[in-house]
């Protein structure tokens, strides 16, 4: 029998806890949140805690067959159904890697115009090495993955001068160069632990600016 499909979510490594964000995905499937969190934490125990791991959950065929019976199932049947799932893990998104390496809280608001950060080709290579472990990318060359990353970087405002590798990176506004540009020479002075708070502050400022412009 066919399964219910694939369901994706992002969970912090080694730190999964029952929460609304996880429950919204697992609840309708009848998957035990505690069982998932326990297995997930065990499988990500060697990853730095808090790293946002991409998870793909696939309910097993026997769970899919009984999905319509879940709400009226007996406690015995329910205990069986709650265990029938499997999941695969992937590394964090390319956006997470690029923003973290560039020490940028967020990408550019104006895709392809504003430059908000800078990463080097060597850093792109190391990110590509990490991403090459993801099962959807198995078999792709590192060159292809690097091209995709540089495309994502330029899309976020992280600039690139390597025309042969330019793709969709412009939207993030992050520039890719052989060496760090002088304007970003002090980039690494920003602690990565501060990026989340910087992101929240930036979002509030952008929201306030949009409200002010709307009233004008």
UniProtKB/TrEMBL annotation:
Residues 90-159 form the Large ribosomal subunit protein uL11 C-terminal domain. It comes from the Eukaryota. Residues 8-64 form the Large ribosomal subunit protein uL11 N-terminal domain. Coiled coil: none annotated. GO terms for cellular component: mitochondrial large ribosomal subunit. SMART domains: RL11. GO terms for molecular function: large ribosomal subunit rRNA binding; structural constituent of ribosome. GO terms for biological process: translation. Keywords: Methylation, Ribonucleoprotein, Ribosomal protein, RNA-binding, rRNA-binding. PANTHER family: 60S RIBOSOMAL PROTEIN L12, LARGE RIBOSOMAL SUBUNIT PROTEIN UL11M. Belongs to the universal ribosomal protein uL11 family. This is Ribosomal protein L11, putative. It comes from Eimeria mitis.
């Amino acid at each position: 029998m066919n399964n219910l499909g694939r369901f994706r979510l992002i969970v912090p490594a080694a730190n999964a806890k029952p929460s609304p964000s996880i429950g919204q995905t697992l609840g309708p499937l009848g998957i035990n949140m505690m069982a998932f969190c326990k297995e997930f934490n065990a499988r990500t125990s060697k990853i730095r805690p808090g790293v946002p791991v991409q998870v793909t959950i696939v309910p097993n065929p026997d769970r899919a067959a009984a999905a319509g019976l879940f709400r009226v199932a007996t406690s015995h049947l329910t205990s069986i159904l709650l265990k029938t799932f499997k999941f695969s893990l992937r590394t964090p998104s390319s956006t997470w890697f690029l923003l973290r390496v560039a020490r940028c809280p967020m990408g550019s608001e104006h895709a392809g115009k504003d430059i908000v950060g800078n990463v080097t080709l060597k850093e792109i290579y190391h990110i590509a090495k990490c991403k090459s472990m993801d099962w959807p990318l198995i078999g792709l060359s590192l060159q292809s993955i690097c091209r995709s990353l540089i495309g994502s970087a330029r899309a976020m405002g992280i600039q690139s001068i390597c025309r042969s590798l330019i793709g969709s990176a412009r939207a993030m506004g992050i520039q890719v160069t052989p060496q760090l540009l002088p304007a970003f020479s002090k980039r690494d002075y920003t602690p990565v632990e501060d990026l989340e708070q910087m992101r929240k502050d930036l979002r509030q400022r952008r929201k306030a600016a949009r409200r002010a412009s709307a009233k004008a």
